[in-house]
Write a structure and sequence with these properties.
Helix 13 (307-321) packs antiparallel against helix 14 (331-339) and helix 14 (331-339) crosses helix 19 (420-429). The chain has helices at residues 45-58, 61-71, 81-87, 103-110, 161-166, 190-196, 205-211, 214-226, 232-241, 252-263, 270-280, 284-287, 307-321, 331-339, 344-347, 361-375, 380-392, 406-416, 420-429, 436-460, 471-478, 484-500, 505-518, 525-528; strands at 76-79, 95-99, 116-121, 126-131, 134-140, 142-145, 154-157, 176-179, 183-185, 198-199, 229-230, 348-350, 356-358. By secondary structure, the protein is an alpha+beta fold.
């Protein structure tokens, strides 16, 4: 089955080979149902029954709901992701269905069957249903017409399942199962593409992407999530139409939603594969140009490693390190790994000996990351944390060659704050040298740093370092009111705390008084003693 050669849609004499999913985890490596592709052999009754059983297991409610619609004289079919994921043996959370009934009819038909019924998007013909803990969305067959400057279509209701499937993004999402019998409908060869792990559009790729440019990002997301490969004509269309993926045609919010889903893929190597497709086709240039800019050219005067390939390696290694630091599909870490070196193109310089330097690229990179993620409308806390990780990702290397003092360890932990586990993972992932001895030295040095952090944490509660005196104590000792001076004093005491560790109240009070006197802030007579 997996090695069958099939004729691609629109190329009667051509052949294509299945794309291997070489890095698929066990959840993705299950064999697909042994059903011949529509372009070669007819499907047998036994195979139809097997397909129906698989789909019924994915959505057992479909039989009852389909029978209900049939009694009212309407068609109903499972469609899209639920069918695709059933064949891939992936979990099926929510259920999408399509029907020839209009929304008002759907709501009337389902009112007694469902626990609750609500309009999801009546303008687009969608009604939401909930029964028990399952959520269903039922959408009326429709056709769509797009204006050149907008991805919001003009929607008209349709009467044909096949026409409804034609408007969908990829053939693997244009699979349906007619209810109540779960009869497979595959008019565009989606099952063949599913088996070959290929992304192909039901219509001409250029027309599909021109209608909805966001589909370029969705293609990259499916590459990341499913391990699929884009068909050559889809990749070519993405390259030709990349410039259309920009506001106002596609909003920053919609772009960031797809990017986040891509970055949070569970598939090993998936996020890097998705980013690679976006970069190679020019799509990333439209919304994340700092990443393509990492593909720096190398000549005899700039003999440095490819920063872009290094970045993809760091991203993969950071993801592999997530379990070590109790991080699960961590968006902040993954974005920081992707963006950690984006300051390099802006700070590149050639030294007198011909070597390339990127002085302060950590600081510049943090500024660029902050600005870019803000433009993409990511949450402010995510944006701030990613920028902070980029700013800190070189901090370890300032000490890697020597012994860490207690003061340096305290500052490292305090500067990282709650981001410390992510900083650990990012710093370790950033070592991509092929020099085994150098890699081992760096790993041992970081092992030593983590050991020192653990030792000091037992002694000093490093995770919550504070000045030895709080604000009320400072005001009482110096006889000053609340205000900026209290904050200035706390910062001084925190610096002292980081330098020499915790001390008792008496010593901290005397240090404060000595500092205040030197600054001309000493309180009158009795208060000093």
């Amino acid at each position: 089955m997996g090695g069958m050669l099939v004729k691609p849609v629109g190329e009667p004499g051509g052949t294509r080979r299945p794309v291997a999913g070489s890095r698929l985890g066990s959840a993705y490596a299950q064999p697909l149902l042994s059903v011949p592709v529509p372009h070669s052999d007819p499907i047998s009754d036994g195979q139809r029954r097997a397909a129906a059983a698989l789909l019924a297991a994915a959505c057992p409610e479909g039989a009852e709901l389909g029978a209900l619609f049939a009694r009212h004289g309407h068609e109903l079919a499972l469609v899209g992701g639920v069918v695709r994921d059933a064949f891939l043996r992936r979990p099926v959370p929510d259920i999408d269905l399509t029907t020839d009934a209009v929304p008002e009819q759907v709501m009337a038909i389902c009112r007694r069957w469902a626990d609750s019924v609500w309009p999801v998007g009546l303008a687009f013909g969608t009604v939401g249903l909930r029964r028990g803990d399952r959520v269903f969305e039922v959408t009326t067959y429709r056709s769509e017409r797009y204006q050149p400057d907008s991805r919001k279509p003009e929607v008209a209701y349709g009467r044909s399942l096949e026409a409804d499937l034609l408007r969908r993004d990829f053939t693997v999402n244009a699979l349906a199962a007619r209810l109540p019998g779960y009869a497979l409908a595959d008019p565009f060869g989606g099952l063949a593409d599913l088996r070959a792990r290929v992304l192909r559009t039901p219509r001409r790729a250029e027309d599909s992407l021109a209608d909805d440019p966001l589909r370029m990002l969705r293609a990259a997301r499916f590459v990341a999530q499913l391990g699929f490969a884009p068909a050559p004509e889809l990749r070519a269309a993405m390259t030709a139409l990349a410039a259309r993926l920009r506001p106002p045609t596609v909003s920053a919010e919609r772009i960031s939603q797809e990017l986040v889903k891509l970055m949070l893929s569970e598939l090993p190597g998936g996020p890097a594969a998705g980013i690679a497709l976006l970069t190679e086709t020019g799509v990333a240039q439209q919304f994340l140009p700092e990443v393509p800019a990492l593909r720096l050219e190398t000549d005899e005067h700039m003999a440095h490693k490819d920063v872009y390939q290094h970045t993809l390696t760091v991203l993969n290694q950071a993801i592999e390190l997530e379990p070590r630091y109790q991080l699960e599909r961590d968006l902040r870490l993954r974005l920081a790994a992707l963006l950690h070196d984006i300051g390099k193109p802006k700070t590149r310089s050639v030294l007198p000996d011909g070597r390339v330097a990127f002085h302060h690229h950590d600081v510049k990179g943090a500024q660029l990351a902050q600005a870019r993620l803000a433009r993409l409308r990511l949450p402010r806390d995510v944006t701030a944390d990613v920028a902070r990780l980029v700013e800190l990702h070189l901090r370890f290397h300032g000490y890697a060659g020597g012994e860490w003092t207690d003061s340096a360890v305290r500052r490292y932990v305090t500067d990282a704050g709650p981001l410390l586990p992510r900083l650990h993972a990012l710093t370790r992932a950033d070592c991509t040298t092929r020099n085994r001895a150098k890699a081992q030295r760096l790993a041992r040095a970081y092992d030593n740093l983590e050991r020192r952090i653990a030792e000091l944490a037992e002694q000093e509660e490093l995770a919550a370092i504070r000045p030895d005196l709080d604000g009320n104590q400072i005001m009482a000792i110096l006889a000053i009111p609340p205000g900026p001076l209290v904050g200035l004093t706390r910062r001084y005491l925190l610096e002292r705390r980081l330098e020499r560790g915790p001390v008792g109240f008496g010593q901290a009070r005397q240090e404060l008084l000595d500092w205040a006197e030197g600054e001309g802030l000493s309180p009158p007579g009795p208060a000093k003693g």
